[in-house]
Amino acid sequence: MKKALPLKGGSGGSRHGTKSPKELESILKQYFGYSEFRGRQLEAIEAVLSGRDCFCLMPTGGGKSMCYQIPALVKTGVVLVISPLIALMENQVSSLKSKGIPAEFLSSTQTTANKNKIHEDLDSGNPSLKLLYVTPELVATSGFKAKLTKLHNRGLLGLVAIDEAHCISTWGHDFRPSYRKISSLRKQFPDIPILALTATAVPKVQKDVISSLSLQNPVILKASFNRPNIFYEVRYKDLLDDVYSDISNLLKSSGNVCSIIYCLERAACDDLTMHLSQQGISSAAYHAGLNSKVRTTVLDDWLSSRTQVVVATVAFGMGIDRQDVRIVCHFNLPKSMESFYQESGRAGRDQQPSRSVLYYGLEDRRRMEFILRNSSSRKQQPSSSSTELSEKTLADFS
């Protein structure tokens, strides 16, 4: 474990740290091993350290987490990180702890003893935590809001970071109603900077996120989405004798490297996993039909390289910190180019040559159009909004 820097202090005890780029690079090197910042990372860090709200659009693998983890090592108090997936939080907290950075998460998977320990630390006058990961559902509860208010009143709430911020927008590819509950944070803490981060946001989504979070004159940063290290390929299902065999041959010819295969349905995940296992390929299925203990085991085995291939529904991989994914394969068509970009972008986060392989079939296209056409009608929205959203969703797919 790395020896921790003196983390308290910031700028003479103020909420806003004032570090030079060289000092920030020194922290980056000591804790994360990188010699320089990438893309718009430094600009985002300097924005929130100066007290500005910031909307940051970076590609998958672009290092969005650095934009709030570095400020946590500079600012006084606790950085609150709102994240959509428990697995994501567990993964990032484990990684931070291994680097000597005090971090924790609060979720339903935590034991009562651990939760009590975290709350005791937050209630102290001098919390040791630098980063606290929470779900949007927890942020909306009156009890946790009161705890945040106490932190804020003592000058110990340094920054609110909202990861996967596109989830707050009904126009985003992964809208989550629970994210709407965090929109009151600006009113509750008008002097605390808010950092909204996403790897996928068309202009309409960007505008909606900024408006929904009431970001005040935010710094808007957009990094290049060009990923030259990823080779993109389309294979036509209708021209293949056996898609499962083609995938098996693809993985074997690549040396059974770390891979993710996305399927539309749980049954396809299970069937493909069984086929790959029979072919001697180390693989496991991951989807909502499995209990949380099994999903956690699958994730841990994949992260530690005990399993090479995960066959999963689309939620898998969001925020997961594995750099050496060499192949991302789509067994079915994604629902939009945004979804495809985010999912395929999980390959080659270490900037090494990687592959994105999409299997295209006419039957898959008809099935996805049917799903998208009917999904909006099930939402509880006025008919005009439902129709507009349905048309937008279909347009994104087409």
Automatic annotation (TrEMBL):
Its main location: nucleus. It is found in: Nucleus. It catalyses: Couples ATP hydrolysis with the unwinding of duplex DNA by translocating in the 3'-5' direction; ATP + H2O = ADP + phosphate + H(+). Residues 389-398 have a biased composition (Basic and acidic residues). It holds the Pfam family Helicase_C. Keywords: ATP-binding, DNA-binding, Helicase, Hydrolase, Isomerase, Metal-binding, Nucleotide-binding, Nucleus. Its EC number is 5.6.2.4. Residues 375-388 have a biased composition (Low complexity). Residues 1-20, 372-398 are annotated as: Disordered. One of its GO terms (biological process) is double-strand break repair via homologous recombination. NCBIfam families: recQ_fam (TIGR00614). Belongs to the helicase family. RecQ subfamily. This is DNA 3'-5' helicase.
